[in-house]
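Example S7 (structure tokens).
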């Protein structure tokens, strides 16, 4: 009787789709009064980021970091190239529920409190009131913003660092699988950066 060798678990394990996979991503803008000037902040960019991996884009101002993030999120359509985000083509709306995003210059409804703003952001993701009642205090503690301040003070009275902390909490409100943070340390004091 011949002995059959079972394949090893490693050989049969399916590798998960990467969180981000792009090849040849480029973006060109036309500027000027007559749209006769061409600016290319992103040229032939390729990248693969595994699920669970922390990855940072570093570079000088104007290097294309924000443009890259906007192309990945489907905010800006790339001029050329292709890619996937969480296994779906770039721009696919079905993954929006699984992504958190803090833009470089976020806009806040400054007449709202941070609590109201986070509740609003949670409702955009269709989270229940009971879940938000639990999640908002956890996120405020995580980002180091006082619950009392978040409930009572309108955001127009917040410092830049307090607004940035609110923005970080907003990026995490939906418990995303993938988070994009554009200049997340902007406005934070050294202790806030460390945290």
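Recovered sequence:
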């Amino acid at each position: 009787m011949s002995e059959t060798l079972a394949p090893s678990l490693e050989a049969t394990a399916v590798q998960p789709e990467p969180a981000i996979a792009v090849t040849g991503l480029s973006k060109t803008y036309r500027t000027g009064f007559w749209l006769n000037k061409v600016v290319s902040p992103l040229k032939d960019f390729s990248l693969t980021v595994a699920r669970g991996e922390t990855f940072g884009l570093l570079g000088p101002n104007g290097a294309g970091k924000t443009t890259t993030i906007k192309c990945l999120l489907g905010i800006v359509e790339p001029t050329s190239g292709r890619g996937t985000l969480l296994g779906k083509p770039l721009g696919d709306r079905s993954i929006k529920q699984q992504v958190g995003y803090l833009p470089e210059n976020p806009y806040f409804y400054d007449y709202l409190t941070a609590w109201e703003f986070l509740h609003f952001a949670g409702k955009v993701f269709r989270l229940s009131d009971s879940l938000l009642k639990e999640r908002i205090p956890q996120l405020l503690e995580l980002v180091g913003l006082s619950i009392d301040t978040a409930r009572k003070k309108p955001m127009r009275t917040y410092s830049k660092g307090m607004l940035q902390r609110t923005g970080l909490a907003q990026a995490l409100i939906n418990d995303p699988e993938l988070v994009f943070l554009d200049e997340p340390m902007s406005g934070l004091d050294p202790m806030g950066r460390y945290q």
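Notes on this example. The first helix runs from residue 9 to 12.
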